[in-house]
Amino acid sequence: MRLFYGVQGTGNGHITRARVMAKELFKAGIEVDFQFTGRAFDKYFDMDIFNGYQLRHGLTFSFNKGQVSYIKSLLTSKPITFIKEVKELDLKGYDLVISDFEPVTAWAAKSQGIRVLGIGHQYAFNHKIPREGSDPIADLVMKYYAPVDIGVGLHWHHFGQPVLPPVIETKELSKKINKKKIIVYLPFEDTKIVIDHLIPFKNFEFHIYTADIVPSPSDFVVCKPLSREGFQQDLVDCAGIISNAGFELASEALQMGIKILAKPLHAQMEQISNAAALHQLGYGQVMHDLDVAAIDHWLHNANAIQVSYPNTARNLVEWIQNGMPEMTADYVEGIWNTVDIKHIHN
């Protein structure tokens, strides 16, 4: 079997999910060509697992002070380049085309009359799940940004809908947690402003992963360059994460029993909805703006939730190999029945 797999590269969550899928696809002996779009070519890192990959510009979103700017996104988009990339991508000879909310792959498949499978969190919004912050532009983006014929949605809970658990890598949990260690990943915020909000908490140590390395006035707040390996090493023994409300990192934190403080991007329906879901499920705390009081409350609340998810990537690969039969209620329920939830007090 030969697959073409397009991945949205604007944030690291889609790439993280693709790494897990790649591992299971290659293990099953499936040949896969990966394509990534949405960020500058020199901003990709730790990509060895993909055994070579294609890069295109695609489409991306622009951000300003922690908020999606649709006007700036439109002004900085390159529609002629995008149309050219769609026309130049030849998908003949592939047994299946997959898109993780990646527009060049999705539209190329559509224009060539090839059925495309969508795997990702965005496709869960085709069902009745927690949804907030919606507006006409957000609805259009979700519908037309990367259209697929079959969409397999992923979420932290099923909400009574035919969605699957997150695609994440199962890690061995650390037996020794540093209760003072906090990872901070707020890539769309001003790093200096983030540091200002952390300075009051001298009894903790903050590891900020950012592309914008700036000097810190205190030794308990450290900026670190983006690194998959370094991030994962810090994640193993940390007590909590402060991050935007992206899906994949929160999924990893839940799997590892790490408490979560989420700050969703303004005007970004997916992240606002994710924050609402975290709050509704009791899986994490939310602050809609950087807030010293909210950070203080969260830091001194030691409760966390651990959700043990199955190997959804392996389930998906087996489902693809079996010809992608209809996901019946019994099939979906059988997968969710393997999920285990525990309350953790670190």
CATH architecture verdict of the largest domain:
3-Layer(aba) Sandwich
Could you tell me the strand content as a percent range? 15-25%
Radius of gyration: 20 Å
Q: Report the top-level CATH class of the largest domain.
A: Alpha Beta
Low-confidence stretches: none
Q: Give the beta-strand count.
A: 16
Helix content: 25-40%
Outline type: globular
Q: Please identify the structural class as seen in this structure.
A: alpha/beta
Number of domains: 2
- The CATH topology annotation of the largest domain reads as Rossmann fold
Termini separation comes to 46 Å
Helix/strand layout:
Blueprint: E1 2-8, H1 12-27, E2 31-37, E3 54-55, E4 62-63, E5 68-69, H2 70-76, H3 79-88, E6 96-100, H4 103-111, E7 116-120, H5 136-144, E8 150-153, E9 181-185, H6 191-198, E10 205-209, E11 221-224, H7 228-237, E12 240-243, H8 247-256, E13 259-262, H9 269-281, E14 285-286, H10 292-299, E15 303-308, H11 312-321, H12 329-336, E16 340-345
